[in-house]
Structure formats: structure tokens, C-alpha cells
């Protein structure tokens, strides 16, 4: 790891003014050498230290958000919940208020990484973590996402890569909390250097490579996520997040699915179904949502909806196996919500 | 031209804002196993490195150095964390507990004794971290079921494959504490 300066800002605004780059902009270089003059923000620091230890990021200064007061609380807000960006995955997994209606988020947080990492990793850091693509994580591969010319996955080892929307870059979005939060209709509150605040839905926050090749989201330099907002859900809403991975602990999943259903006596009033680990951004399965809406859900309909969710998948040379895994997971998640 | 070594630090006039330190060595205070230590570290020093290299607390092991194996598990304010992914400068006032802090003098912690009794150690490299996770579990939940022990140790890699013996050691330690 490179040496760096360590800044302890007194406020979010001071931290935003001190930040010269996002992790993504500090990493995207024509030369393949990470920027040496960047001042970047650090919360839990898990992905940041990983990138720095691998020599993929070499900032001049880290700005520590972890100790800023008030960013690690979960509070009721207008019938929903406001979650501070520094709330850890362990806090979320143990949060009783998330059960049932927002259960998908607790499931996703509790299934991520290891117990040790969950104590340190923050929700905002989880949403902003860089992809796990092994070409992206390899110093020897100057890929498009780091400012190079090639996505090595298309002609290479792509068994863990995208099956949807891989236009120019075949990463999958690494955050399972993002899968759950997009399905729950969550939004982000963001503050910039000038202190201006904006709110963006998480679904619009994440971007596909055809729009932006070198970052996975619309966070600009000097912007800080100050809250994740969970909107109010009717008491009849239930949600589930399921993952399927090669190992039961400490691994990013091969497939993950969040299903949020509003059910009135077995009839689905509203459905949100989001697939993670299948595309460069969380992937909304609108055909599956349409298949359930207004219908009485049984196993046959869950199966049909799961099949619809995978229509249009474009597997690469080595990842067609993911399609039936996703189908099974979508079906199981729908049935799990019915049973919740 | 001034001849400077990295530990000298820049001139006061060139120093950035008062809230910024490094990249030169910085004095910090660490509370470890009930003792307060003052040490001098550069900001990139991890807690695991500071414990091992500055405080000679070499019971904490570094294997992957990426938070993926949990060999470096210590407690921060009682919660198990991977000390290789925590910067020493970021520990602040939080209390660090390492494997050296479990025994009472020469008397091993009951979980340490149970690991020996149940042969839950082979090469031993992952053992201090595993014990830190298991003791933390029993403090939180004195009567865990097998699934809870499995979850508590799910971050640990043991390439000797001692997991079944670790399970029996922890469950036995819990039973012994109950009786």
C-alpha cells in the first residue's frame, strides 16, 4: 500500500470540499497507472484498502468519513426509514425494524462477506464498491473500466460475468444490498462541495456501460452520500433477498434476487423483482413483475414469472449456466415472499 | 536542498491543514488488552501490523491481508473484526482485544482449553482468530446451537480442516460454562 495523508474532516461539507476525485475517477487512467494526486473519501475502507493493497488505487490523501457524527443511525422518516451511510452491514442484519416489509435489505446485508467484514463495511461503501471482475482487479489487465481499450471478459474467462446489458463491459454489479434497495424503491441523499443537496432514486443512480464505462454510478467528485432512504411500504408488503454462491460465506454470489410483493389475500397488487450479479447494474425484471401483478400467485405462476425474468438474457461463452440458476432463484424468492 | 528522511515530516509552513497528518509517521494511542500504548505509525499501517510489529503481539496472524481469511481477527469494542482491513490510525478510542488478552495469567480461557482438549488445532495459524470469534459468540450467546457456531466461524479459512473439532470444542465450552 502507498503512503498517504490522513485527514479527519469536521463536517460532511468540509470532507466534500477536500475530495478531489471519486475512487472511479482516480482509477480511470489512459496510462494504466492510478492517479497519485487524488484525495478520496473513506468510510469503512474495506474496498478502498483492497484496491490500494492491490496497487490499483494510490491516493495522496484519505478523507475519513467514519468518525463524522450522525451518519451511523437508522431513523424513522415519514413512514419509511432513513439509514445513515456509515451504518454497518452488521447493524442492518440485526435491525428489527427492517424485518418483513424491508426484510430483503436485512437478508442482503446479513449474507454479504463475513461476520468480521460486516462489522466494518458500511452501507454506502457496499453500494459504491467497485466490481469484482478479475480483469478489473488485475494490475496486468488495463481494461476499459480503468481507462484502457479492451474488455478482456468477452474473449476470456467470463464465467462470473454479465448475462444482461453487457454493452462494452461485462462486469456484474457487486452489491447485493443494491439489488435489495432497488427493489424496495430506495433513494439516496447526496451532498456536493457547495453544500447543495439532491435526492436520486437508486435505480437511476446506477448506470450501464453504454452510458458510462468507467464508473458504475452517477456519483461525482466531491459528492457524498448522506443517507439511504427507504420509502414507506404498506403493511401488506413483504420482501425477500436470496443469493446463490459457490461458497456459503465470504463470496460474491453467482446470482442474487430481491422480490418485493404487495399481497392482498394472495393476489399481487404490486411487484418489484430485481436481479443482481447478472448485469453491470441491478437489473429490474419488468416482464416478471407484469406476470405477477393483479394475479393470484401459485407455484405455476411463480415459475412462469421466473422464466419471463430471464427472457432476453445474452450469456457469454462460459456463463450460460447462470440462466437456470437465476430462474430457480426468482421462483424460490417469489414463493418465499408468499410464505413470509 | 534540505536532506530529509521520511520521519522528519514537512516544514510547518508546508504542512496541510491541522486536521491532516502523514504521510510521515504519526503518534497514536492504542488501547489494547486493557493497556494504553503510544506508538508512532505511518497512516497506511494496519492494526494487524501495528499489533505484531510494534507491540510484539504476534498471536494475531496475517495470512491473506485482504479480509478474506479472518486469521487476523481481533475485537474492536468487543466485536470481531479483521485487523488487516482496519488502519491503526482509524482505531481511535475503541478498545482492542487480541488473543493475548483472553488468558488470565497462566490460566487459559475455557475456549482455549477446549480447543486443546478437542484437538481443534493442526498447524495453528488460523487458531487465534477462530478463538477470538468463538469467545465473542459465547459472550453474546452463551448457549449457541451448531448453526450459530457455524455462522460465527463462517469467515475463517482453516486449510487443515479443523472445523468439526472447532464446533465440538465451542459447544463443549458452552456446556461446561453452563454446568
Which key terms come to mind for this protein?
heterodimer, A: 340 residues, Enolase-like, domain 1, 12 helices, B: 179 residues, alpha+beta, Ubiquitin-like (UB roll), 5 helices, 6 strands, elongated
Explained architecture:
- The complex is a heterodimer of chains A (340) and B (179).
- Chain A has helices at 12-18, 23-27, 46-53, 89-93, 103-111, 115-120, 123-128, 176-183, 202-205, 286-292, 299-309, 322-339, and strands spanning 5-7, 39-42, 61-64, 74-77, 80-83, 187-191, 197-201, 224-230, 237-244, 255-264, 267-276, 283-284.
- Chain A starts with a strand and ends with a helix.
- With 340 residues, chain A is an alpha+beta fold.
- Among the domains of chain A are: 5-63, no CATH class; 237-339, Enolase-like, domain 1, CATH 3.30.390.
- The model of chain A has no long low-confidence stretch (mean pLDDT 96).
- Chain B has 179 residues and is an alpha+beta fold.
- Chain B has two domains: 23-101, Beta-grasp domain (Ubiquitin-like (UB roll), Roll), CATH 3.10.20.30; 110-178, Orthogonal Bundle (DNA polymerase, domain 1), CATH 1.10.150.120.
- Mean pLDDT of chain B is 91; it is low at 1-15.
- The A-B interface holds A 1-10, 45-46, 49-50, 52-53, 61-62, 64, 66-67, 90, 113-117, 119-120, 248-250 and B 6, 16-17, 19-23, 26, 42-44, 46, 65-68, 70, 73, 76, 79-82, 85-87, 89-90, 92, 133, 151-152, 154-155.
Amino acid at each position: 500500500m502507498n503512503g498517504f495523508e490522513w485527514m479527519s474532516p469536521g463536517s460532511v461539507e468540509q470532507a466534500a470540499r477536500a475530495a478531489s476525485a471519486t475512487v472511479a475517477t482516480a482509477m480511470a487512467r489512459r496510462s494504466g497507472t492510478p492517479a497519485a494526486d487524488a484525495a478520496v473519501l473513506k468510510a469503512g475502507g474495506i474496498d478502498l484498502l483492497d484496491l490500494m493493497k492491490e496497487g490499483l488505487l494510490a491516493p495522496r490523501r484519505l478523507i475519513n468519513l467514519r468518525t463524522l457524527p450522525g451518519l451511523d443511525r437508522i431513523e424513522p422518516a415519514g413512514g419509511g426509514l432513513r439509514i445513515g451511510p456509515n451504518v454497518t452491514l452488521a447493524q442492518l442484519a440485526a435491525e428489527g425494524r427492517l424485518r418483513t416489509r424491508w426484510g430483503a435489505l436485512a437478508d442482503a446485508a446479513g449474507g454479504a462477506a463475513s461476520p468480521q467484514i460486516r462489522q466494518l463495511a458500511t452501507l454506502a461503501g457496499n453500494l459504491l464498491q467497485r466490481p469484482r471482475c478479475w480483469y478489473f482487479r488485475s494490475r496486468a489487465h488495463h481494461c476499459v473500466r480503468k481507462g484502457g481499450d479492451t474488455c478482456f471478459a468477452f474473449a476470456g474467462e467470463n464465467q462470473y460475468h454479465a448475462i444482461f446489458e453487457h454493452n462494452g463491459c461485462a462486469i456484474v454489479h457487486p452489491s447485493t444490498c443494491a439489488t435489495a434497495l432497488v427493489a424496495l424503491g430506495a433513494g439516496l441523499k447526496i451532498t456536493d462541495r457547495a453544500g447543495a443537496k439532491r435526492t436520486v432514486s437508486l435505480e437511476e443512480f446506477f448506470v450501464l456501460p453504454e452510458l458510462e464505462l468507467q464508473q458504475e454510478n452517477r456519483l461525482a467528485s466531491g459528492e457524498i452520500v448522506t443517507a439511504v432512504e427507504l420509502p414507506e411500504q404498506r403493511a401488506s408488503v413483504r420482501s425477500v433477498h436470496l443469493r446463490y454462491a459457490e461458497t456459503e460465506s465470504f463470496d460474491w454470489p453467482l446470482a442474487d434476487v430481491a422480490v418485493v410483493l404487495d399481497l392482498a389475500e394472495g393476489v399481487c397488487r404490486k411487484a418489484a423483482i430485481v436481479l443482481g450479479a447478472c448485469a453491470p447494474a441491478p437489473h429490474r425484471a419488468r416482464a416478471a413483475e407484469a406476470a405477477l401483478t393483479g394475479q393470484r400467485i401459485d407455484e405455476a405462476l411463480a415459475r412462469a414469472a421466473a422464466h419471463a425474468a430471464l427472457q432476453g438474457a445474452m450469456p457469454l461463452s462460459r456463463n450460460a449456466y447462470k440462466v437456470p440458476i437465476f430462474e430457480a432463484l426468482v421462483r424460490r424468492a417469489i414463493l418465499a415472499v408468499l410464505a413470509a | 536542498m534540505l536532506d530529509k528522511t521520511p520521519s522528519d515530516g514537512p516544514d510547518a509552513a508546508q504542512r496541510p491543514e491541522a486536521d491532516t497528518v502523514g504521510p510521515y509517521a504519526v503518534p497514536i494511542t492504542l488501547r489494547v488488552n486493557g493497556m494504553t500504548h503510544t506508538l508512532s505509525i505511518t497512516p497506511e499501517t494496519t492494526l494487524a501490523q501495528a499489533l505484531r510489529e510494534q507491540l510484539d503481539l504476534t498471536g494475531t496472524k496475517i495470512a491473506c491481508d485482504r479480509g478474506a481469511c479472518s486469521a487476523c481477527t481481533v475485537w474492536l469494542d468487543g466485536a470481531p473484526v479483521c485487523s488487516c482491513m482496519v488502519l491503526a490510525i482509524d482505531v481511535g478510542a475503541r478498545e482492542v482485544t487480541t488473543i493475548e488478552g483472553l488468558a488470565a495469567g497462566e490460566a487459559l480461557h475455557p475456549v482455549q482449553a477446549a480447543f486443546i482438549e478437542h484437538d481443534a488445532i493442526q498447524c495453528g495459524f488460523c487458531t487465534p482468530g477462530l478463538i477470538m470469534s468463538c469467545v465473542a459468540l459465547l459472550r453474546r450467546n452463551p448457549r449457541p446451537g451448531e448453526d450459530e457456531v457455524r455462522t460465527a466461524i463462517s469467515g475463517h479459512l482453516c486449510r487443515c480442516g479443523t472445523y468439526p473439532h472447532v464446533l465440538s470444542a465451542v459447544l463443549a465450552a458452552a456446556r461446561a460454562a453452563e454446568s
